TrEMBL record, chain A:
<dbReference type="Pfam" id="PF02653">
    <property type="entry name" value="BPD_transp_2"/>
</dbReference>
<keyword id="KW-0472">Membrane</keyword>
<feature type="transmembrane region" description="Helical">
    <location>
        <begin position="87"/>
        <end position="108"/>
    </location>
</feature>
<dbReference type="InterPro" id="IPR001851">
    <property type="entry name" value="ABC_transp_permease"/>
</dbReference>
<keyword id="KW-1003">Cell membrane</keyword>
<feature type="transmembrane region" description="Helical">
    <location>
        <begin position="61"/>
        <end position="81"/>
    </location>
</feature>
<keyword id="KW-1133">Transmembrane helix</keyword>
<feature type="transmembrane region" description="Helical">
    <location>
        <begin position="140"/>
        <end position="160"/>
    </location>
</feature>
<protein>
    <submittedName>
        <fullName>ABC transporter permease</fullName>
    </submittedName>
</protein>
From TrEMBL, chain B:
<feature type="transmembrane region" description="Helical">
    <location>
        <begin position="65"/>
        <end position="88"/>
    </location>
</feature>
<feature type="transmembrane region" description="Helical">
    <location>
        <begin position="95"/>
        <end position="115"/>
    </location>
</feature>
<keyword id="KW-0472">Membrane</keyword>
<protein>
    <submittedName>
        <fullName>ABC transporter permease</fullName>
    </submittedName>
</protein>
<feature type="transmembrane region" description="Helical">
    <location>
        <begin position="20"/>
        <end position="45"/>
    </location>
</feature>
<feature type="transmembrane region" description="Helical">
    <location>
        <begin position="259"/>
        <end position="278"/>
    </location>
</feature>
<feature type="transmembrane region" description="Helical">
    <location>
        <begin position="164"/>
        <end position="182"/>
    </location>
</feature>
<keyword id="KW-1133">Transmembrane helix</keyword>
<dbReference type="Pfam" id="PF02653">
    <property type="entry name" value="BPD_transp_2"/>
</dbReference>
Amino acid sequence: MSASALVMFAETLRIAAPYACAAIGGIWAERSGIVQIGLEGVLLAAAFTSVAVAHATGSAATGLAAAIAAGAALSLGHALLVERARVDPVVSGIAMNLLAYAGTRLLLRGLYDSASSSPSIEGFRAGPTGKSGAALLARVLLDPVSIAAALAIAATPLWIARTRFGLRVRAAGENPAAAAAAGVPVTRVRCAALALSGAICAIGGAHLAYDQRRFDSGMSNGRGFIALAAVVVSGLRAGRAALACLLFGALEALQIALQSAARGASRAGDLVQLLPYVATLVALGLAARRAAR
Amino acid sequence: MSPAGERPGPARWRRRLRDLQGAALPAALVLGGILLALNLISFGFGEAPVSTLRRAFEGTWGTPYGVGQVLFKATPLLFTGLSFSIALRAGLFNIGAEGQVTMASLAGAVVAAELPARTPWLVAVPASIACAVATGAAVALVPAVLRARLGAHEIISGIMMNRIADVLAPWLLASVFSRAAMRTADAIPAARLPRLERLVPALHGSAVSVAFLLAVALAFAAHRALSRSRAGREARFVGQGAEVARAEGIDVPRRRLEAMLAAGAVAGAAMTATTLGYKGYYEVGLGAGAGYAGIPVALLGRGTPLGLVLAAVLFGTLNQAGLAINARVPKEAMDVLEALAIVLVASATARGGRSGEAPP
């Protein structure tokens, strides 16, 4: 493997991690029968919380834990609004996204008196330093947030397929009336699934922030929605969704490489930025057509 | 829903009164929640709530200029709120208004700038608006076709179109129209919409334009079309239950497509408020956020034209109040309040369901 291929591979993993966490979170939500378009908001809120807590305590691990708690809480709030207050899940998700976007901006102003970004933080420091492809890859693989993300992603398919909780979540999602008749506490199972969804999605938010070593306003930048597309395209299967996110990460890594290569050469290079979004649209259309058949 | 052949009379007025009562609870909840949260936030920023409130009031309804600014802020929200509302009546979510507004503003501004300088306003204004409206519908076409023909999630594709518009608008400005300043050339004077201060001198200095009247008229016209025309009635039927509508022989994909295109067209008309009525040109970021801000307007407006106007004015007030208090309490506070308002409205009207109709 040449050095640049190693760099591309490491970049792909690094870029794909937040997408994959959000997609796995989305799968837990959709499996339990609650549409969650608030993944974007969970990513953003978790990113902010991780930086704010890490900055205050000086401990990146505490920041990660706080982010997970915040993501779970926000997602649980969504579940309660949908299940208890009977709010339309799309409407509630929109509100969650807006709340996270505006709330983090408000807190940025309140805590750091800045309209755009937080002070920088230390983050985790793992792996070798250096700019070679191997060092880059080692840093990505040894990063504790990446490891947490990989564990959550790997555990999800088994968790859904093999455990009692997974079975209950599927039952609540596929046929809530039958599940309730069989004695499954549907509302409680859904709330638990959404809290788990938020917790896993939040790992992605913390990854995003620790990767940049600070929080920027709106830094989730639509990743939650692209993850949602991956969920839809995967047919609610965790492995496929993770694969879709990897593909997407590769696409984005390619786009960054192309864009830096084309910089200054022509304005057409900027259009490469469209690639991920157009690809998502095409994938959505293809998946829908396959499902319709 | 209102039957088409309804005669004006006592029954109709009773129904309207009932609608108003149904709207009073959510409105009261929203106002109460907003005031409470504003108090908490201003406490958090070490400001006395009463003085924050007084500043907010003075900047909005306290002066004629403030009123004009509120209406100015409300205008694009009324367009995008109406856009979301139209799609919602057909059971669809037009999350793509943001990108529709962006591309429509650009297209309309280019037409308004490129017309010969001596074009009469009677030609210039409709030409610019028509181009904007067509562009808005064209941007909506992608999610519309994906949803109506293939059944793909209109929310995700709408968001993707928003991102595409975000990239495309600056690129078009820079490379196709070769504008280094990230804005279009100035519109010819005949294409600009007059400000309301020419009709009502008291509004002097505020940016509210004829576009506000246009938006109000459009809201009432759209309501009429939805309840009186066959296409509109069928679209609402689809929104209440696609399966039943299909069984009744309604062409569901076609009505969905039409509703999304109409929503895109109406969102495109929002450029009259920002581009033709205010700046006179389009620059990157002009009108940004209006697409998403239209969602709570549509939810609070509950599908009636008067409700939409009142909701747009309420959120316009919040926006303008945010600017008025910005020196002491960040204006982002108002966005938090907006999110809160969505939740409050939605939970208070939860019985209404997805169709956006007022509960019976």
